[in-house]
Amino acid sequence: MTTISLKIPDDLASRLEATARAQQTSRSALFREALEEKLEALASESRPSLLDQSADLCGSGGSGIGDLASNPEHLKGFGE
Which residues belong to the signal peptide in this entry (predicted)? Predict the structure, then answer.
């Protein structure tokens, strides 16, 4: 395990200490848990959705048939 030293404001240190005591855990464990949650949240926010990745392709292909989705004649032979 790697040791990291950091400076935090006194009020944050007090809150960290109080929360660690209330949860009967160490400050280090509490800090690791909070850091892990934050990093996971940031990672999920930065992943673009499939729609974001393919937005320029949506609607770009056309069949040339204006009523393709609404005319049952175009469905003959499908699902047989």
Answer: none
Alpha-carbon torsion, ordered 12, 13, 17, 20, to 10 deg: 60
pLDDT tens digits, 19-50: 999 999 999 999 999 999 999 888 877 777 88
Helices in the chain by DSSP H: which ranges? Answer: 10-22, 27-46, 50-54
Q: How many CB atoms lie within 10 A of CB 32?
A: 13
For residue 3, name the pLDDT band (cuts at 50, 70, 90).
very high
pTM for this prediction: 0.53
Q: Residue 9 phi/psi, 5° resolution? A: -60, 150
- Could you tell me if 19 and 31 are in contact, meaning their C-beta atoms sit under 8 angstroms apart? no
